[in-house]
Task: structure prediction
Amino acid sequence: MERERPRAFTADLYAFWALAALAYGVGDTLTTLTVLDVAYVTEANPLVAAAAGSFGTPGLVAWKLLAFCGCLAISVRAATAWRDRAMAAFPPLVLALLGAVTTVSNLRLLLLG
Result:
């Protein structure tokens, strides 16, 4: 009889990644692009500023995709090879928190000037 292999990504990890995609991928990206269209605001992160300054919107999106995919790779490795649930959950939770904070900060800049 063959034993069933435990699932590496469970519902909680999928939920964490969904939060990361919404907060970091959608919220932060859209508000950052909107804020950068406002003349009196500049990007505070030098790496994002360089990417956006050199390549515009595609550079910003590429940088964010690179960060997202790098974190996803760490999470998958932690869940599968290392079987470390805490380490697998850490990258999406950090991205979700970072995305939420920067989204709120960007919205504050837009609303309060």
Q: What stands out?
A: The chain has one domain: 11-112. The CA atoms of residues 50 and 102 lie 18 Å apart. Residues 11-112 form one domain. The chain is about 80% helix and 0% strand.
